[in-house]
Amino acid sequence: MKYYFLLIACVLGRLTLQAQENLIINTEGRNSVSLNGTWSYIIDPYDTGFYDYRFNERSEDDLGAYWNKPVLKKKTDWTEHGYNDTYTLEVPGDWNSQDPIFTYYEGAVWYQRTFDKPAIAANEQVYLYFGAVNYEAHVYLNGKKLGMHKGGFTPFNFKIPADLLQDTDNYLVVRVDNRRHKDEVPTVNTDWCNYGGITRDVKLLVMPEYFIKQYHIQLDQQQDIVKAKKKKRFQVSGWVKLNEVMASGKVHVEIPELKVDKEFEVTGDSVKIAFEVKKMQLWDTETPKLYNVSLAVNDEKAITDKIGFRKIEVEGDKILLNGDEVFLRGICIHEEIPQDARRATSKKDAEQIFGYVKDLHANMVRLAHYPHNEYMPRTADSLGILVWTEIPVYWTIDFENDEVLEKATNQLEEMVARDRNRASVIIWSVGNETPRSDARNTFMSTLAKRAKKLDDSRLISAALEVHYNAGTNFVDDPLGAYTDIVSLNEYLGWYGGLPDACRTANWETKYNKPFFISETGAGAKGGFHDEKEMRFSEEYQKWYYEEQIQMFKTRFPENYKGLAPWILIDFRSPKRNNPVYQEGFNRKGLIDENGNKKLAFYELQKYYKEIEEKEK
Ligand code: GCB
What we know:
Blueprint: H1 2-17, E1 32-34, E2 37-44, E3 88-91, E4 108-115, E5 125-130, E6 136-141, E7 144-150, E8 156-160, E9 170-177, E10 202-207, E11 212-219, H2 225-231, E12 233-242, E13 250-255, E14 260-265, E15 270-278, E16 291-297, E17 303-307, E18 312-315, E19 318-321, E20 324-325, E21 328-333, E22 336-337, E23 342-343, H3 347-359, E24 364-367, H4 375-383, E25 386-390, H5 402-419, E26 425-432, H6 438-454, E27 459-465, E28 472-475, E29 486-489, E30 506-509, E31 515-519, H7 538-555, E32 560-563, E33 571-572, E34 585-586, H8 599-615
Helix pairs in contact: 3-4, 5-6, 7-8
């Protein structure tokens, strides 16, 4: 009996973890009904909605379960839960910023709303899609469980069984739990706010019987891009994956602006794509050209995506974009809107953040430390900003645990599935500042290899660390052998020494690969001015940047090919408790929580403008 349960548990576990295989990408291009808006909630710190008074998991039809609608027929009937208009939360959004009761809340919250069945034709099916829920989501419809998902920053969807969908008043309940655990990804210890909730868009997707689930359309990475540019002939290649095996069928690919109109035979549930295009305008940071690409299976309505075509590669210690060397003028970003101390959720939020990035004269962002909402890479695509995107394998993950590796891999797969058609995304990062050990090296190199296998058209990286020493700082982390770029977080002048220590520091890398500073930064409280030696003054932070930049210019090795300082904007972190200067914020932003630029912003901007000028 025990083994039987174990087996079921394993199978269920796998089903959850394989969610990304059924992930429907480019939901913007689909027939959808938004379920964003006002939802009702129950805050449930004791997990009463999930467990009965003996702390056994409630059965599906238990009327005390919070996924079930209380039915009161007569006066003597009673209930101890329910949803109404008094207790509501906006979706998408974190709960922390919506009501003070939630500021530091970590636990279960039940979200509820109703919806009517969308208009669907015979043969059409409805999927329920979540852009992200932090961290664990259990989803119930009309009292039945649709499924569960773990991972706070990646999308997932469930098919709604046709016989479960009522014409009106479908009762949708999501149990969201943002508790931190040692064996999850991220683990218990991070330097950011653990925003809980349904933090990204929710929608119903109305899908035909056969549809294109995922695809990858890109410049063929095998071709010599310099020759292709000369000849003005470009190879495009990729694949399409359908929701199901088809006996026979065709996938139609159209790029009207390039006069591409092609059909490809379906084999099983997938299609290989390859064709040649003449005179294509490649996507780059100056001209981020996007083409409307439409894909259709048989005579179903086509889905359209805006896709840029470019090649990113590393040659020795150079990063090449379309064959031309590029220096990454980057900046790190958390997915947060400072003025409201909340998660960023919308296109408008993405535009606000990228407005600051443009102002800085940066050409690259590191989306730390987890995949940001889809508006971010899409906005970067349209603005010509290069993107590093990362999974939250952060600090002291439980590297010995195979299940944790599986969880991290699952998040990696979901991230790649969602964003592999974004030209802006050039780097998949498998983690940040993970402490060296055999177990960690195996764990991290497995992820790096997996990322390459999922998508060999991008660069793989991870933020490494080196502990400063007065002689030479030698970057020789074994993980560097598996990454295309050797990236380092260094805080010389903040966590060790004073900024003028940069004048004598020496840096070397073991690997003949592009060397990238994935973090460097110092804290300053916006508006606090003093002598430059005064910690947390804007002057200290400016001094730090002056010394760092001078060090990059004069003391860095030849293979130094870019940087992404920490960080664009101050962000909430419960670890930062200096009562005068921090008050729950990490103050290393170049912009404060009110959107004001600090002095250091202009130092970095000056450096970036100089590089830009030189490149002209
Ligand atoms: C780091 C971490 C980043 C922290 C930052 C800091 O190295 O990668 O998540 O927020 O340092 O401010 O200390």
